[in-house]
Amino acid sequence: PRADHEEHDDFYELQPADYYNLISKRMAEQSKVLKTSKMREAELASQRAKITKAVMRVRFLDGYILEADFHPSETVHSLVDLLMKVIARPDLPFYIYTVPPKKRILDTSQDFYTVGFVPGANVFFSYDLPEEVRS
């Protein structure tokens, strides 16, 4: 459109289709507020049922990436178990974390859905060694 082009006055009038869109949006917003906790839980459960896997990517300090699929109801501990099998030094303490900001995953008893790793997530691996040992 050109800068000197002006719209006709009827362009700014509310049309029936515009009115219908406004009302339907408002009704949708109100229906969110008026749900009972059981309705919200049922809706959340149906959303969870639709997602069948959580794709986890573990990034190591040397640049390698391990990708594995888990069921969303599995716990983060299943990822830790897998890492214990594939890392070179399972005898050394390690942790996984997310960024930004850097946040260690401490509670491995939670499922992937609860932690927020569904449908997938990138986590980082690091050995938990004192500074003087690392250098």
TrEMBL record:
Recorded GO MF terms: ATPase binding
Domain of life: Eukaryota
Residue stretches making up the UBX domain: 49-125
Gene3D superfamilies (UniProt xref): Phosphatidylinositol 3-kinase Catalytic Subunit, Chain A, domain 1 (3.10.20.90)
Matching InterPro entries: PUX1 (IPR044232), Ubiquitin-like_domsf (IPR029071), UBX_dom (IPR001012)
Gene Ontology BP terms: protein-containing complex disassembly
PANTHER family: PLANT UBX DOMAIN-CONTAINING PROTEIN 1
Name this protein carries in UniProt: Plant ubx domain-containing protein 1
Organism, scientific name: Phyllostachys varioauriculata
